[in-house]
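cron nightly-structures :: item 1 of 1
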Amino acid sequence: MSTAKTIVCFGPGPKFKGGISNYNTSLAKALQAQGHKVHILSWIQQYPAIIPRDFIDRKSRQDLLQGTGIPVTYITDYNNPFTWKQTAKAIADLKPEKVIFQWAISIQGLPLGSIARTLKKLAPQIEIIFDCHLVVQKEVSALDIKATKFGLKVADTYIVHAQKTLDELKKLFPEKSFSVSKDGNIPVEQGKARVLHLYHPVYDMFRENPDLDIEAEKQKLGLNTHVFLFFGFIRKYKGLHLAIEAFALLNEKRKDCSLLIVGESFWNTLDSNKLSTRIKKILFGSAKKLFLNNSDNEEDYKPLELIQKLNLEKQVVVFNEFIPNEEVHRYFQVSDALILFYLTATPSGVESIGYNFKMPILATKVGHFAETVIPGYNGYLANAEDVNDMARIMELSISNPIDRNNVVETAKNMSWNRYASAVAK
């Protein structure tokens, strides 16, 4: 184990929804478990105020940091540059050896890049680490690239979770010299950027309920014998429309299957009748035209309408809402396979949750999935955007089921303990 250090984890605190918040919390707990002194510094507001979405988790009752004593300071407001300087000073005042910034979207490039640069001036001895959940956005524009470069440029160390992300990082900074390690056993060198090529750890905050009566729960939810699960925010890049179309093809062959869709429509969290919401949508729509190359409006993405169109109302069960952390286990425990028919992909938090529940993964051959899903061992892979092939692997997962012990073996190499050890070195 490495010598005990003081480490700051900067990212959304546990009051926020979503995978990055869960990730930042889990990382802090894993580092503390290894003897490090950990502080979480968080956004107050993660995005421009015009974005028409509620990012706060108002449902979960469980305190994910209970019993840890890890302090959380909500300090950074995207819309107030004065707080960016306050954040850098707060980090410097803690005198950490390392600060780990969670990076997942280019729009945060301006505040995060500014904080990192100010911190370099205040405390140049602190190692600045950017934990890159992705580098290139799902929809990329010239402004995205500029914001990403500004945000990531001054890092001493980058963490990537897939080869695709590492390749994108090298392409973004062709002038940089990179030293790459899979275990953290390389030092920070002057003139070189250190890269830790790791993985997305398996979430340990979600636990099976051994007392859950699976068959009774399936009956309660109206599920058939074989259950395919789509879980998480409904975004176009996740391909839910393809999953529904593929399931419709499967349903033509057998009637003993259900598709369980559990998740909140990403752009449908505010009261659309409120004047403030309508104003935000107008302003945000105008701003998006500057950032996106295409005219595709994700707010118009309504894949759930396919259910009625394809006459699947009896075979598809939908919970179109944000699920509190303490209820997540129900939906995984009643399901047989996790559907990840993404159009594009970086390491997926939903995939990580699936491993925690020993779930076989049915994914498309995009992004990193070819690195994590071994066909016939811990899941199956389908050709991207090919609904016939997706239906094929759904049926294959029934006729040739995955041994869940194989999923357990896969997850052993993706622990938070090993991840935290590499990061803390």
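cron nightly-structures :: done
The domain at 6-203+413-424 is CATH 3.40.50.2000 (Rossmann fold).
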